[in-house]
Specification:
With 266 residues, the chain is an alpha/beta fold. The chain is 41% helix and 23% strand. Strands 3-2-1-4-5-10-9-6-7-8 form a ten-stranded mixed β-sheet, with helices on both faces. It starts with 8 loop residues before the first strand and ends with a strand.
């Protein structure tokens, strides 16, 4: 078991959308419990502005910078009012590249499922998806706020060490109960693995239970999501785009009723 999961530095990307404000609200709430430094980041999306021609002379470019400064100032004021430590960064470039690079020095990233453009055809926002795929720290995605964390759902297909450890440390901090869930497949019995993980969690003094269910993994997880405050899902480091595009993780992030934290295996 590694040392306790730190939450010293939390990245909070903002773009002025209603959904990103939800992420700011949750970050401010978490600051009351974990006392991290909240790092608010606004990225002037050069890739989007390029379609207008020369970026340096475009009105859209300067308007985006002005908006970014305003959004960061508003976030800083909210943090000061809440008594939270905070920093603000105004960056330029491809948002997912900037955020993934900054994630190397972060313990958690809190971001909305979709940004200004919203979700189309049930798909996760392109920036969010690319961040999930490339982030070096866990990414907590959300469509609506959930300030309490009393019940955690940990879906498992195999023993993803990073996700299990992250769930344990999150439960320790919030005094939550963990439900370890596995969906049956024809050629494998997940019961021994689920029992092993449950016993490990209980060994850390955390309440835990195991559940094994039949059906489609996405349908089962999404169907249960309304009964939980947070879902923690592990992603294999080898999977990359192949796992997320059209796969279980993306569909759960998009459809779940509660926030979803995606943890990549190191």
């Amino acid at each position: 078991m590694p040392d306790d999961q730190k939450f010293d530095r939390v990245l909070v990307p903002i773009d002025g959308s209603t959904s990103s404000q939800v992420a700011v609200d949750l970050a401010l709430h978490s600051a009351k419990e974990f006392n991290p430094t909240l790092v608010f980041v606004y990225v002037v999306d050069i890739t989007a502005l390029n379609r207008f021609g020369t970026v340096d002379s475009s009105q859209e470019y300067y308007m985006s910078k002005i908006e970014g400064k305003m959004f960061l100032e508003n976030a800083a004021k909210l943090a000061e009012k809440a008594g939270a430590k905070h920093e603000e960064f105004l960056a330029e470039g491809a948002p997912w590249e900037i955020l993934n690079e900054m994630s190397k020095e972060a313990d958690l990233m809190i971001m909305s499922v979709s940004g200004k453009s919203g979700m189309r055809a049930g798909r996760i926002g392109s920036t969010t998806m690319k961040v999930i795929e490339g982030s070096y720290c866990p990414v907590l995605t959300m469509k609506s706020s959930s300030e309490r964390i009393e019940k955690l759902l940990l879906p498992v297909y195999e023993e993803n060490r990073a996700a299990i450890d992250y769930a344990i440390q999150t439960a320790k901090r919030s005094n939550a109960c963990i439900t370890v869930l596995s969906v049956k497949e024809r050629d494998r019995d997940p019961a021994p693995m689920v029992d092993k993980i449950v016993q490990e969690i209980k060994g850390d003094g955390i309440k835990a239970e195991g559940r094994i269910m039949d059906g489609n993994a996405v349908d089962v997880i999404v169907g249960l999501s309304g009964k939980f405050d947070l879902i923690i899902m592990g992603v294999d480091k080898r999977g990359g785009l192949r796992i997320l595009r059209g796969g279980t993780t993306e569909r759960v992030v998009t459809m779940a009723s509660c926030p979803v934290s995606v943890v990549r295996e190191k």
